[in-house]
Amino acid sequence: MIITNTTRWIAVWVITAVACGCSVVNAPPSLEPGMPRRGITPRSYKMKLAVLNLLDPTGSGGRLSENVSEMLHVALFETGRFELMQRAEVRGTDPNDIDTIRKQYQLRLDALVVGSITHFSPADKTMALNVNVMNAYGLTMAAKAFTVRYTGTINVDADREDIKRIAEWIEREFPKLASGLVLSRSDNRITLNLGSGSGVQRGMWALIASRGDIIKDPQTGEFLGSDIYVGEAYVIAVNAATCEALVVDTVEGKTPEIKVDDKVVFK
């Protein structure tokens, strides 16, 4: 005879009830039918960033190009909003070759923070800096110009408050959003029920979740199982109330199993 999980559950419930001398017992939770889908290993649960060395077409920034990047990495970490790739992993990369960097880290990152010194003024010890947050697949998500003060001549350091201001701007650009649902799927494209009215921006990443082995309490109807992540996608088009996202292969190189009504959790 084949013993199923449900049979074992009922047997334990009956034996326990008899041993306790219960005259009235409630039915055990029921297992909902259906095979659970394969879970994935997300690249991250928070929005994961890498801060690259600054581009310096002025040729005057010197060690400030690395100094600013190190300080911005720390300031972003201190917001608590993001997961950061270690600077040691990207410190030696060439920011002029952004496409190569993107492809190299595509399966490990959500976005890159790229800065460029556009003007350097030793007289008033300031530099003009353009900061760009770019999706790992090349979509520009946010961009803004800043003025950063610095001190020193040989041992040069950027002003911490100015760097903190950049980190706070990035944090404001990517607030934590409400959860949503998958409305439809066509091949590797899905439509979600959240749009610009909910704060969704082009390039944002979302985790797609589905229930795994589900146990339902017959008295309350409450689902006692937990969600599992089945896919990741990034937004490619945004309307007021909906958005379209592109599903990407998992870090294991498999195609995610995503269905209508799956839960969407933005990073």
3D architecture notes:
This protein is an alpha+beta fold and 267 residues long. It has 2 domains: 27-41 and 177-266, Beta Barrel (Thrombin, subunit H), CATH 2.40.10; 47-173, Rossmann fold, CATH 3.40.50.10610. The chain contains 5 helices and 14 strands. The protein has helices at residues 5-19, 64-79, 87-90, 98-105, 160-173; strands at 30-31, 47-51, 82-84, 111-121, 126-135, 140-151, 157-158, 180-186, 189-192, 205-211, 215-216, 227-238, 243-248, 263-266. The strands form 3 sheets. The chain has a 6-stranded mixed sheet with strand order 3-2-4-5-6-7. Strand 8 (180-186) and strand 9 form a beta hairpin. Helix 2 (64-79) packs across helix 5. The longest helix has 16 residues, at 64-79. The chain is elongated. The two termini are 47 Å apart. Mean pLDDT is 83; it is low at 1-34.
Features:
6-stranded mixed β-sheet; 14 strands; 6-stranded antiparallel barrel; 5 helices; disordered N terminus; Thrombin, subunit H; Rossmann fold; 267 residues; alpha+beta; 21% helix
